[in-house]
What does this fold into?
Amino acid sequence: EPEVTQTPSHQVTQMGQEVILRCVPISNHLYFYWYRQILGQKVEFLVSFYNNEISEKSEIFDDQFSVERPDGSNFTLKIRSTKLEDSAMYFCASRGDRGLEETQYFGPGTRLLVL
Amino acid sequence: AQKITQTQPGMFVQEKEAVTLDCTYDTSDQSYGLFWYKQPSSGEMIFLIYQGSYDEQNATEGRYSLNFQKARKSANLVISASQLGDSAMYFCAMRERSNDYKLSFGAGTTVTVRA
It folds into this structure.
């Protein structure tokens, strides 16, 4: 069964460093998302991406964040200068094009720890 | 205002018994979708079940069923014949057409199944 994959599964970084989180969405999906879950809290939307551009972003997704689909398979989230409060689990998700009933499938997540 | 409300932070259930997880939602859209995801301690988000706002019948997927009461704006998840492997966090989420199809999550309910 097709699945969303994410790498790395865990990342530890120093405050101020850049990190790139990688995702490979399900191959025939067209819509891509990043969500964040701070430990013990609910999952929060960061950004949605369609047709090679951002379609919506939350207030969390400030200038320190960027997304890219560098080739036909990868979808990346970059944090330019990490802060302590960026420590969280980051989920990538993708969905097809059947509209409202289309399920978003999540990757296993990348657990980011900023020291 | 919260779009998704899950009022039960934690629940205990005896193995083989059924458990109901509450979820209420708030939307002015006529067309929306409701989802339940399971998050075990390993952290991944596993899709369980979907209910569309126009679906007249309650969704079922194996031991999972969704008790959809549209007038009350509730979408409770029922897990029948609980198993030890059902111990996890459960999130209710909603997708609205007016919200670019991104998911809005509730705070989650932790379910612990006792042998």
Summary: The interface with chain B takes residues 31, 33, 35, 41-45, 48, 55-56, 89, 91, 93, 95, 99-109, 111 of chain A (CB under 8 Å). Chain A has a mean pLDDT of 92.
